[in-house]
Each structure stands twice: as C-alpha cells, then as structure tokens.
Write a structure and sequence with these properties.
Blueprint (H helix, E strand, L loop, with lengths): L1 H24 L5 E6 L6 E9 L5 E8 L25 E8 L4 E9 L4 E10 L4 E8 L2 E9 L1
Antiparallel strand pairs: 1-2, 1-8, 2-3, 3-4, 4-5, 5-6, 6-7, 7-8
C-alpha cells in the first residue's frame, strides 16, 4: 500500500509536467496545420509553420490535398515564386509576435490567385486553431486552420 502511494506521489509531478508541455506547444503557431477552405469547409492543404533564424515565423505548403492538376505551379505569382511548384512553397513570410498568441507584420500568398496579402495570425480555442487573415487596404478575409 505504501509503495503504491509513493509511486503515485512520484508520478504526479511527471504527469503535470506532461500537461504543461502540451499546453506550451499550443501557445505557439509553430507546427503543422490543415488549411480549411472557408467556402467548402474542406481541408485544402497542409502548411508547416516554423521559426526562421531571425525569429520570424514562416510557413510552407508541405502537401496539397486534392489538387486541381498534378504538381501545380504558381503561374499567377509575380514575385520569386512565379512558375515554382506549390508543394514546398513558402506562403507565409515575416510574421512577428504581436502580443500573446498573435503575430503580424508579415505576408501570405494565395497561390491560386498569385496575390500576396498583408497578414496576421492568432491562436484561438486554446491553440487548437489558428485564425489567419489576409488584407489588401481595408478589405480582409480570414480562414481558420486546424492544428494537426
């Protein structure tokens, strides 16, 4: 009985540390996200967000789900991404922390349009979802991505 009680007392701090670590992971936008189309409510791609050497966040499409054609390229892009494969493409650039669980100051590319938008991101629902907004002038559109 005493041995079981001691084991439980030792296991409790370890279990709490595991919960704290999981919560810390949800406090960052880093990781893999399902990009959900706001019109169809279906996943379009998998985006991986990571930190660059200068501390900014960037994101790449690591997988297209049900692409309209095999191995599509960004034909409508007008910058350095023009004509390059969309899978592996950096679509989020230069996002900087802007308060707790918020990032802004960067840009996001919509490859099917070839347009680059000013962007901001915010973790919602305890870090399980990421609200991503893209704006031109005062017109903004948002998507909610799901953590994988």
């Amino acid at each position: 009985m005493r041995k079981t009680f001691k084991t439980l007392l030792l296991a409790l701090p370890l279990a709490m540390a595991g919960i704290t670590a999981a919560q810390a992971d949800n406090a960052s936008a880093e990781g893999r996200w399902r990009q959900i189309d706001p019109d169809t409510h279906r996943a379009k791609s998998i985006v991986e967000i990571s930190r660059t050497s200068n501390g900014a966040l960037h994101g790449r499409i690591i997988e297209l789900l049900n692409p309209s054609r095999p191995n599509p390229t960004c034909d409508k892009c007008s910058d350095d991404r023009k004509g390059k494969p969309i899978t592996g493409m950096e679509i989020i650039r230069g996002m900087r922390a802007d308060g707790a669980n918020k990032w802004s100051g960067g840009s996001i590319l919509k490859p099917d349009e070839g347009k680059v938008y000013k962007s901001k991101m915010e973790l919602i629902e305890g870090g399980r979802k990421l609200q991503v907004s893209g704006c031109i002038a005062f017109i903004c559109k948002s998507q909610v991505w799901e953590r994988m």
